[in-house]
Q: What sequence folds into this?
RNA sequence: UCCGUAGUAGCUCAAUUGGCAGAGCGGGCGGCUGUUAACCGCUAGGUUCUUGGUUCAAGUCCAAGCUACGGAGCCA
């Protein structure tokens, strides 16, 4: 009779019982007639110990020859042992029986160090490594927490199209696709459709991949990235900030609660995450520029000083965002950006149209903008004028302008970048590890 | 696209002033009853990114290109 198949994450519940594990050899160390296999099954890792005299000799010889990442089915008794490594660790299997499913060929990723290019070329195998396993599990938890929070707040998930006829934002960064002889584009945002959907459902969000053909080569850019975009009818900029703050705090709290083990694996500084509680400081663009200019004055290093130079009216660069975020140990809101540097659909501030009702959320520790949002223009004339001014062409936006004809209301929404959020929460130096298969400027493989 | 750095064994790296191309890990063979990236012995493994140039002699110097990495711009 074959012992019950269990997941390694549940191993503690089976102390003293015979169980079966199915998985892959993460590492093996041998001491002659005693062999240690560190087995992973996707849910965790457990040490399996083989003594020659406790097994059939043919099977023991198989154990002695096990290569890294060979797939096996192991049966044995669970016992507690402080010496046993693993995830969660502290328990090991005394092997009675082992079946080899496949003997893996020489595995390229060894327990030693590797370079980024090599690992990215072997991403299909790299995802098996502890650190990557932990990060991608945290990513899944972050996405679930965002969706749970929105669902609980009365938002409805409404999917938006990937293939679209018009630009959401800058026309230079679109991927063009051939749509039966006509031009179409991969979506950069679902926002315009969200604005239609709120008139049907009140509060909605979309979640999916977005595509930007930007020639960006930085630690925070991907060509294909995932974005979650809530949109709310009858919503002001201040209420929008409340929503963003509530969601981000919930997400961080959920990761701390559900993924402590994974945070330990990646050696994240937990205090930095525990600090993420409401309220987040809210400063105006005017205030932010003043703070940056004061910071600029205090710097002696000419190179750094040059990077941080800014005049009112300019958009923030990456060094500006980092410098601003460093002034706080929580995310910080910056609102009322100059209208000229923002998208055509953002509402101008009443009585001061050179700034608009926009807000970015900057993550701490140099992770930069993770959220961008705004109140949207709900006046038809003003919106049409802006579309003309940007040279976007009214035909493609006909349906979008329609929304302002049939019960238009003040509304607002934002987009949160999943990969940047994961990079921040995990404390990673680059977004390429936050997504299973990153699409970068010079990489679409594997 | 611009600026900077790098490219040597399957991987991570070393190689003095331009003078015999090396180590660890991984692989193979052998040993070991508590290993934690085990350890010990033996062993195989090279178009030094490409092309051209300087030189008695180039991994090393020069030129161009390719690729990667770091940064900028743009953005989430």
A:
């Amino acid at each position: 009779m074959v012992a019950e198949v269990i997941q390694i994450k549940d191993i503690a519940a089976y102390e003293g019982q015979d169980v079966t594990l199915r998985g892959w050899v993460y590492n093996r160390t041998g001491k002659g007639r005693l062999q240690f296999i560190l087995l992973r099954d996707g849910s965790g890792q457990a040490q399996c110990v083989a003594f020659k005299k406790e097994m059939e000799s043919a099977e023991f010889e198989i154990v002695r020859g096990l290569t890294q990442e060979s797939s096996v089915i192991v049966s044995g008794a669970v016992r507690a042992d402080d010496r046993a490594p693993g995830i969660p660790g502290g328990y090991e299997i005394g092997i009675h029986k082992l079946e080899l499913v496949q003997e893996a060929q020489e595995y390229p990723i060894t327990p030693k160090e590797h370079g980024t290019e090599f690992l990215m070329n072997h991403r299909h195998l790299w995802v098996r490594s502890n650190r990557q396993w932990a990060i991608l599990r945290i990513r899944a938890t972050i996405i679930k927490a965002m969706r749970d929070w929105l669902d609980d707040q009365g938002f409805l998930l409404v999917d938006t199209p990937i293939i679209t006829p018009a630009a959401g934002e800058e026309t230079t960064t679109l991927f063009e696709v051939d749509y039966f002889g006509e031009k179409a584009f991969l979506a950069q945002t679902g926002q315009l459709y969200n604005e239609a959907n709120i008139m049907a459902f009140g509060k909605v969000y979309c979640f999916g991949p977005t595509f930007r053909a930007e020639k960006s080569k930085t630690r925070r850019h991907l060509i294909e990235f995932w974005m979650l975009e809530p949109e709310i009818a009858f919503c002001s900029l201040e209420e929008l900030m409340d929503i963003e703050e509530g969601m981000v705090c919930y997400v961080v709290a959920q990761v701390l609660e559900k993924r402590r083990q994974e945070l330990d694996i990646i050696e994240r500084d937990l205090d930095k995450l525990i600090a993420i509680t409401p309220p987040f400081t809210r400063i105006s663009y005017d205030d932010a520029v003043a703070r940056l200019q004061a910071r600029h004055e205090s710097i002696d290093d000419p190179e750094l000083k040059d990077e941080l130079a800014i005049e009112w009216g300019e958009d923030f660069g990456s060094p500006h965002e980092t410098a601003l975020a460093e002034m706080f140990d929580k995310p910080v809101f910056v609102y009322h950006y100059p209208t000229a540097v923002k998208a055509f659909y953002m509402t101008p501030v009443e009585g001061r149209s050179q700034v608009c009702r926009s807000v970015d959320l900057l993550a701490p520790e140099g992770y930069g903008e993770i959220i961008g949002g705004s109140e949207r223009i709900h006046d038809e004339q003003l919106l049409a004028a802006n579309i003309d001014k940007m040279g976007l062409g009214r035909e493609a936006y006909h349906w979008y302008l329609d929304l302002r004809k049939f019960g238009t209301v003040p509304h607002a929404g934002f987009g949160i970048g999943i990969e940047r959020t994961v990079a921040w929460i995990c404390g990673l130096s680059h977004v390429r590890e936050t997504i299973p298969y990153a699409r970068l400027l010079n990489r679409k493989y594997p």
